[in-house]
């Protein structure tokens, strides 16, 4: 019975993800944050150049987290696949919609031994206020504030205005980059692409 319930939860999550993939770009920000967000207007879709590629060892970092002190990518080596989710800035519409969507996909991510690490260049007090208003997130939220944007820069996703790209990297248990998606900063990225990449990593037996 327990297995049946799990399958049902995964099926529902998959269905919701399908809706998000089809309708994600046209969805508005979290209704709970209506009237509280800064709209930067339409921005240059991509404003950086990657410094890493698929197959490279992931640049190691250690960043302050809202809940768990300092989090390092080394913490997950040999145990979890890591999804790095860089977003440009707190208190903006698309970012405030993107991360809560990963709550829906939690069971699917965990099925493939994956953890999300959310990263912005904002400082911890800003991230604290933003995420409290956004609602509970199951994954660590990290501050790349100082040295400003250093982790984003090492991955090649620091924009010329000092914010990060809307970028996703999947790093396998061996610390190798297996997937990269730098999206149009004005649009929420395709959640389905993350799930498909995790399936591929799982099927190839990456440790």
Using only CA atoms, what is the Rg? 16 Å
Strand content: 15-25%
Average predicted local confidence, pLDDT: 84
> Spans with pLDDT under 50 lasting ≥5 residues?
4-29
Number of helices: 6
Percent range of helical residues: 25-40%
Largest sheet: 5 strands, mixed
Instruction: Find the structural class using helix and strand composition.
Output: alpha/beta
Overall geometry comes to: globular
The rounded distance between the terminal residues' Cα atoms is 30 Å
Q: What's the count of strands?
A: 7
**Could you state the order of secondary-structure elements as H and E?**
HEEEHHEHEHEEH
* Major sheet: arrangement of strands: 5-4-3-6-7
Secondary structure blueprint with pairings:
Layout: H1 2-23, E1 62-64, E2 70-72, E3 81-86, H2 93-104, H3 106-111, E4 114-120, H4 124-134, E5 141-143, H5 150-155, E6 166-171, E7 177-183, H6 191-203
Parallel strand pairs: 3-4, 4-5
Antiparallel strand pairs: 1-2, 3-6, 6-7
List the main descriptive attributes of the protein structure presented here:
five-stranded mixed β-sheet; 207 residues; two-stranded antiparallel sheet; 34% helix; alpha/beta
